[in-house]
Specification:
This protein has 293 residues and is of the alpha/beta class. 33% of the residues lie in helices and 27% in strands. The protein has a 7-stranded mixed sheet, with helices on both faces. Strands 2-1-5-6-7-8 form a 6-stranded parallel sheet, with helices on both faces. It binds ribose-5-phosphate.
Length: 293
Amino acid sequence: MIILGGTPSKELARRVAEQMGERWVDVEVKRFPDGEKYVRIVGEVRGESSVVVQSMYHTPDEYLVEFLLIADNLKSLGAKSVVAVFPYMAYARQDERFKPGEAISFMTVAKLVRGVGVDRVLTIDSHRHRKLLVDEAFAIPVEDLTAMRLLAGFVLREAELERPVVVGPDREAKYWARLAAESIGAEYDVLEKKRLSAEEVEVRAVSVAVQGRDVLIADDIISTGGTIVEAVKALRRQGVRKVAVACTHPVLTQGALERIKAVGVEVVVGTDTIPGPISLVSVASVISEALRR
Ligand code: R5P
């Protein structure tokens, strides 16, 4: 087996190769003066089962094209198979036509990935509200892995949380909250908006009494930080003690981290699906385990 990574995930690919004791193959990527990408695989790939690790953060269009060039090239150079690992899968949120005329971008990306001969896809904590659609779109085996268990254990120790409740900031985050809670043997809950009157909306944890408790907020993505900030404010109104945050994909658009710190959260941890200031947990072991299976 050989492991490769494009510009966004070279380091992660190298870690996966190291953990698996497999060969890491370098990919040279340059830009032509007109802005086009140049890709060259620097090593022998003929007859090999290959794995391309390619996260799609910050400049997703660029990294998607890079991936297509690498994968197609592997096949034309005689690689036996190509497994695509998308630690952060861009376009996953536009998986429906929410307004008339909108592109269902996720479908288009899936078609392109399939079109270059990819045999299997692995994602990590991908937007998973319409799993059937995901399988249908790719029409090749797709597995969504999770970093939530690793993250929960890490944040529990880092923030020294005592008997925490894991809270998903909205209903959609229930899946992440459950995974995190189960791995550390904690209770979990989600925040819900309740309309009290025409003017008043209350956000609160619905089933677990959180007053006086430590809380671990678990979500898949922090982008602007707005969801987490609202969740922290709501939990404080309910009288929680310490709050720490775990998210798989720290997109962190401008000022997100500062906004979260400003509401008194000291420990905010993400993974290296998107390298950055809070990417303290590596998903290399999550990927290696899945590839070994
Ligand atoms: C939404 O479906 C996701 O699970 C996240 O809650 C959301 O993307 C976070 O975005 P933001 O940080 O901008 O509130």
